[in-house]
Amino acid sequence: MNPQPIVEDDLAAEPGPIRLVRMRLILALIAMAFLPIAIVTPVLSTALDSQRTIERTQVERDAASVALDVTARLEGVSNALVKVGTSAAVAAYAGGGKNGLSGAKSALVALTTVGDDEVADATLLDARGRQLLRAVGGRLAKPRPMAMVDPLVGAALDADRGQVQSNLVRLSPQEPARLALATPVVGGTNANRTVGIVRVEISLERVLRLAGRGQLAGGTAYLVDPTGTTMLAPGGAAGVDGGPTIGATSLLPGRDGWSVRLVAPTRLASPPLLLVGLLALCVGLLAILVAWMARQVLRPAEELADSRGRLRDMYELARGDSLRDVLTGLGNHRAFQETSQHLVDVAKLRGVSLGLVLIDLDDFEAVNDAGGHAAGDQALAEFGQVVVRSMRTGDRAFRTGGDEFALLLPGATGDAAAAVARRLLATWIDHRPEHGTTMTRSFSAGASACPGLAADRRQLLDQADAALSWAKRHGRTSVETFDRDRHRQTGVSSVAAGDEPTVGVAEVIAKRLLRPVYQPIVDLHNGQIAGSEGLIRPAPGSGFANPGQLFDAAEAAGRTVELDLACVEIIAAAAAPTIAGDAVLTLNLSPRTLEADDFSAGALVAIVRKAGLDPSRIILELTEREQIEEMERLRRNVAACRRVGFRLAADDVGAGNAGLRLLSQVQFDIVKIDLSLVQDGAVHEASKSVVGALQDLARRWGASVIAEGIETPAQLRIVRELEIAAGQGYLLGRPMTVEELVALQATGVDLEGIVEKDDWLLLMAGAAVGVAAPASPA
To answer: Which residues are catalytic?
Structure first.
């Protein structure tokens, strides 16, 4: 986690002088790098040109030699062909005689072994073009099929004795071309008559290979016809096609338009040792010069960079101190202001969510009061460590005040931010301090998000602050996500205000400076004690004069829930001896307690059972004197209480508008009519009618009715006339100790005696009025 804000670093950019120095140095080094290139290039060019000239001359000589050799081999075949064509035996056999067969065969076989076997095929044909004999590779062979029209045969028949006709032939598209030669056979009975033809086919590939045996090392020879078409390209040495080459062309003597082209790779000779040494010396001197110049140029730049580095370090240190809380290691209030604005801008620009959580540690001032500021600082430091260990990468945490913290969570919605805060709350509650710090490890938190809930930074802070205020006022130790309907009336929280409204409430709760009293609930039919209402009084030394002052302070401090649970614990523990027979005990709960996010009916059962009481004997009284802000949650928690055995009573019904909304939305087992309505019923017929109507309504619901505030016999008489089953008030019994309640349970309340005494007093008052009337002045 990085608590530091994102701010512009004014020293991040490289100063202009340093950039200028570096630029000049780079240009100088580039210029000097071209110096040896400029020196060596002409020398190397001259050496390479000389080498190319030598190689080109050699290739030209080789090409001429190959051309002469090819010409000689072709001439040798031509001469041998003419010799066979003028042979008497061949002429005798071709003319139709049988005596020359043996000589013709020998002459034809000898023709295929001329030189180095350049002749691939030799054929003897008669004057009509029919094959008489065929030799291949020094042996007679079976005649092969030939084209019906062979232009070479016709040309040879028309030629004079000793003339040789030539033509290129290709047996198949896949085979290389061959050079065909033909000469007429003249003789027989008529010495001047052409009786046949001798035809041979020469493998040009073999002729080229044999002719270039001494010249083709590393090169390739090509035979080109008069049209410029390459007739043959036998494989040469490897590497001819992969680099620079040198070519030379030489004409074949005696064959117009035919040429041999020789292509050979260029082989560069090793440069002279003197040139290599000179180049190495230049490079060495240049390196020394460059190093010296670089040192001279960069020295002031390095000194400036060192100064700049020291300045940066001091700046970073000062900035870190100004943006970090020394005690916790988190960002401080200034860092929070800067970072929150930046992240809100980023979230709005990129269309992503930014979650905010505001945290206020509970009971932190009690830690300072108990252990001094050293203990408080230690607790804050421990909480900072817990926060650091709990945060995700990229989240930012800040201490914004004394015991106030803030979390910025990029990418988190309001609900996701609240979930992170709840995990942190669970971790903090389970945390075991290393140095024995004593404090209630809990906090209250409010969460919001931008742009999902808030439109800008100010609204984001206000919403999270409102949710935090609601959490503190409804029991603390909870996390609330901002809700417009629930939190719109919430005032400024303690995070913004700065101090707790009343710190004495925490001490009263922690030290249990509370005293229980019990007001009897009387059965109005027989005067027996049906139960009691458990009430609380501040103990001497608590700093509070009466319960009203205590609960007002708890409401202002956001500790109503804690105070309610402490009162239930104390009243239930002391009232166990009074619960006998069918007697019940009523306990008052504020709507704040039943609205609390972490309210648990099971925890309430555990408190009652720990005192030795059964939940079926307990009646929970709920009043609407305080504004109900979470009706749906209250209804769920009321239903949970009923499921575990508690009964519910609507308290103070008839006190202004109190209880009316509760009666319409929550199911109750008992309706307690407020004392003000009962007292008015003694003198106002309309109030009496309202009391009767409430009783009828309760009966239809199957609920019981208890009349509160019975203080005069007349009020008791009216309540009994309305057949209300039970009542309580100062006339029947004031709030008393457990011992006094036990004694009263043994005797009960003499209801008839109260009524008779009231009748006697009324009679005496009427008699006194009657005696005094005549004596009154007119």
So the answer is: 403
